[in-house]
Specification:
With 171 residues, the protein is mainly β. It has no helices and 17 strands.
Length: 171
């Protein structure tokens, strides 16, 4: 007679504190499975930077680039393997860059074109320094000024709570 010990596989359950973060913000990842601390934990943070954490312990992660990131975990303990658990995180990193002419004549139309990075749901806060807006289409503006002098055009983007630095160009 042989005794066979049937073991339950470990679980790979984990939680994240949010599914949307701004670039360089920290995401907390917490293991909530049943495996012992000595189990083998195979984390994949989708090119995220591990700020703190090791093995089973809680992690703090951030990313250097925007986009949809997938965190996954599998656990092996006593020769038994868990299923792979995964969760998605959307990382936002708005950039408020835009292009425009360096010189324009009084009452002459000039184009100001957004060429930064933002999602479709982002809000744009433009300051055209009292310009006349002739037309606008998809964050490209045709503007002119009635008076002479240096004009400063600036833009700030709020993308799902992630705010870009202000970009200012002079004409």
């Amino acid at each position: 007679t042989k005794t066979i010990n049937i073991l339950s596989p470990p679980t790979s359950v984990f939680t994240i504190d949010t599914s949307i973060i701004c670039n360089e913000d920290l995401l907390n990842v917490i293991y909530e499975g049943n495996a012992n601390i000595s189990a083998f934990y195979k984390w994949n943070f989708d090119n995220g930077n591990i700020i703190s954490g090791l093995g089973q312990r809680d992690y703090q992660i951030n990313w250097s680039s925007a986009g949809l990131k997938t965190i996954s975990l599998s656990v092996e303990e006593n020769g038994c393997a868990s299923i792979v658990s995964s969760q998605d995180v959307k990382v936002y990193q708005p950039s408020s860059s835009f292009s425009m002419d360096n010189v324009v004549c009084e009452n002459q139309n000039t184009s100001i074109e957004f060429n930064g990075v933002a999602s479709d749901s982002a809000s744009f806060t433009w300051d055209f320094d009292v310009a006349n807006i002739v037309s606008e289409s998809n964050e490209t503006y045709l503007v002119n000024w009635d008076n002479l002098g240096v004009k400063n055009v600036s833009l700030i983007i709020n993308d799902n709570g992630c705010v870009s630095s202000q970009t200012t160009n002079s004409i």
